[in-house]
């Protein structure tokens, strides 16, 4: 984003060591990288934290939802807590972030981007809950696209191959 002219990029994740590594990689680029420690496993807390954080930010032109956690196992082998973690992290927290930053995106006539995955289009074995969450993102994005267009916000979904 800095290479594209962004003056400030806020990067968020639960692993601060990784955030610091990414920030260090960007040290020679123009613009500022800001670290925001954020755990997406509890969407209710994400909404609270993101809403508070959004009040401290002057402008948001683009929100990229790119978090995800995968567990490869058959559905029958999942305990319910793991089911909740998958859906919360891979779907509901993206919705919470969208809700928190939508006023900024409306004001800037910005862009909302979801980095999804092929599992959001095609269910695969050993990935039932991951696919469920990713299909949820696909459905959410497709549903809000016309609504957000009226608000001046562009909605995109990117489906990279295996990452």
Mean pLDDT: 94
- Low-pLDDT stretches: none
Helices and strands, in order, run as EHEHEHEHE
* Shape, principal axes of CA atoms: globular
Order of neighbouring strands in the sheet with most strands: 3-4-5
Strand content: 15-25%
At CATH level 3, the topology is: Rossmann fold
Tell me the name of the CATH homologous superfamily: NAD(P)-binding Rossmann-like Domain
Number of β-strand runs: 5
Instruction: Please give the domain count.
Output: 1
State the helicity in percent bands.
Answer: 40-55%
Distance between the termini: 19 Å
Give the number of helices.
4
Q: Biggest β-sheet: count, sense, barrel?
A: 3 strands, parallel
User: What is the correct CATH architecture?
Assistant: 3-Layer(aba) Sandwich
Structural class computed from helices and strand pairing: alpha/beta
Gyration radius over CA? 16 Å
Tell me the name of the CATH class.
Alpha Beta
Structure characterization notes:
With 163 residues, the chain is an alpha/beta fold. It has one domain: NAD(P)-binding Rossmann-like Domain (Rossmann fold). The chain has four helices and five strands. It has helices at 16-25, 43-55, 80-108, 128-150; strands at residues 8-13, 32-37, 62-65, 111-115, 154-158. The strands form two sheets. It has a three-stranded parallel sheet, with helices on one face. A two-stranded parallel ribbon has the order 1-2. β4, α4 and β5 (154-158) form a beta-alpha-beta unit. The longest helix has 29 residues, at 80-108. The radius of gyration is 16 Å and the shape is globular. 26% of the residues are buried. The model has no long low-confidence stretch (mean pLDDT 94).
């Amino acid at each position: 984003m800095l290479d594209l002219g962004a003056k400030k990029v806020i990067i968020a994740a639960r692993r601060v060591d990784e955030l610091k590594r990414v920030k260090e990689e960007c040290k020679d680029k123009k613009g500022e990288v800001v670290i925001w420690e954020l755990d997406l496993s509890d969407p209710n807390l994400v909404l609270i934290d993101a809403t508070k954080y959004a009040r401290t930010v002057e402008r948001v032109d683009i929100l990229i939802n790119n978090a995800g956690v995968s567990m490869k196992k058959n559905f029958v082998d999942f305990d319910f807590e793991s089911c909740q973690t998958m859906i919360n992290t891979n779907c509901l927290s993206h919705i919470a972030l969208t809700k928190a930053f939508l006023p900024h995106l409306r004001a800037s006539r910005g862009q909302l981007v979801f980095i999804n995955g092929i599992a959001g289009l095609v269910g695969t074995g050993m990935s039932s809950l991951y696919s469920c969450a990713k299909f949820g993102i696909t459905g959410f994005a497709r549903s809000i696209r016309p609504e957000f267009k009226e608000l001046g916000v562009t909605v995109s979904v990117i489906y990279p191959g295996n990452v």
